[in-house]
Amino acid sequence: MTGAVAGVVHLRERRPEVSGTEMVAALVPPPQFDDATFDTYRADPHYPSQQEAKDLLIAFSRGGAPAERGGLFRRAKKAPEMKPGVYLDGGFGVGKTHLLASIYHAMPARRKYFGSFIEYTALVGALGYQKTVELFRGADLLCIDEFELDDPGDTMVMTRLLGELVPTGTKLAATSNTPPNALGEGRFAAQDFLREIHAMASSFQTIRIDGTDYRQRALDGHAVTLDDAGYRTAITDAAAHAVVSDDAFGDLVAHLATVHPSRYLRLIDGVGMIGLRDVTTLEDQSAALRLVAFVDRAYDAQIPVRATGQALDAVFSDEMLAGGYRKKYLRAISRLNALTHS
Q1: Is the pLDDT at 191 greater than 60, yes or no?
Q2: CATH 3.90.190.20 is right for the domain spanning 45-211
C-alpha cells in the first residue's frame, strides 16, 4: 500500500499477507528509531540507572566493558568482558527501545537483526524452526524488543532458538514486556526471566533502567477525543494529502482477530492517520491484548490517531488494569495518549 493515492481506506477491509522473505527484510528498527544513537538518548539525572545503563550498553556495543582510565604514563586496566546478552529491564517510557536501537546502529556487525518478539515467533511459524535457525546462524546481533512471557510455548521456542545461536557467537540484546502484578512492585523480575531461559541464564546480564514515562512528561491530561463534526473535519483534511483510515472501533477490534499480530504493521502500511469512531471500553482480554499489539505497531510507525466516543486512555477496563497484564495496558495507554496529541 506504500505510495497509495491520498484518500480514505478502511482497515477492516485489508487482508495483509507477508512472506518469510518480507518478514526477514523487516527486521530493522522502526522508522522512529532510524537515527537513534546513544548520543540522542537523554538520561534523566534523577535516575542514575539510566546513565549507568547507557554506559554499559555503549561498552557492550564495542564488544566488552570499558577500560578503566589510567594516568598519563599508567596503562589502563581492562575491565571484565560482558556477557553475550544484555536484558533491559524497566518500566514503559524510560527509553529501552531507543537504547536497543542504539545498540543496533552502534555495533559494527556484518549481519544484525532488530524485531519484536512477535515478529521473531511469527518468522518461526512461517519458515519452521530449523530454517529459522539456519537463517540466523552466524548473525552477529539479534535485538528483541518486548520479550514476551505470556505464551509459554512461544517463550520456549524463542529461548531454544537463542540457545542455539549464542554458542555460535551471536550477541543478544532484549527488552522486557512482562505482566507486573504477579511479580511485585509493578516491575519486571529478572529472576523470573532467567528461570524461563534457564539454559541461557549465564548468557545474559540484566540491566535495570528506572525512570518515569517520558511521553507523559511532555503531555497534559488525557487522550484527545473529538466530537463527530471535529472527527469528520480531521479525516477530510488529512485525506486531501495522505491516506487516512476510517473505521468503527468495534469493527477494527473484530478484524484484528482475523489478522496475525505479525501482520499488523502491514495492515497500516501507507496510512498517514488512523481514524476510530465510537470507541468503547473493552471487556474481553484477548481483544484487548490484540489492540495492544496494534497500538505498538502504530506507535512504531508514528501514525497519529483521531477518535470519537470513549477516550482511548480509558479503553481498558478497571478489571484489566488491575490484572496480570497491567504493564502492557499502561504502555498502550501512554502510546495512545501520545498519538492522539500528535
Answers
A1: no
A2: no
**The domains spanning 7-18+216-341 and 45-211 adopt the same CATH topology:** yes
Residue with cell 540522542: 40
* ∠ Cα 126 130 173 (to 5°): 80
**Which residue in 249, 246, 330 sits closest to 282, CA to CA?**
249
Cβ density class 174-212: b for 16+ within 10 Å, e for less? bbbbbbbeebeeebbbbeebbebbeebeebbebbebbbe
Task: Spell out the domain ranges in the chain.
Answer: 7-18+216-341, 45-211
- Which residues 6+ apart lie within 8 Å of 117 measured at CB? 144, 145, 146, 147, 148, 154, 158, 177
Which element (helix H / strand E) includes 99?
helix 96-106
- pLDDT tens for residues 222-243? 899 999 999 999 999 999 999 9
> What is the reported pTM?
0.75
Sign of torsion over alpha carbons 328, 334, 335, 339 = positive
CA distance 202 to 200: 5
Specify the CATH number of the domain 7-18+216-341.
3.40.50
3 state SS of 66:
coil
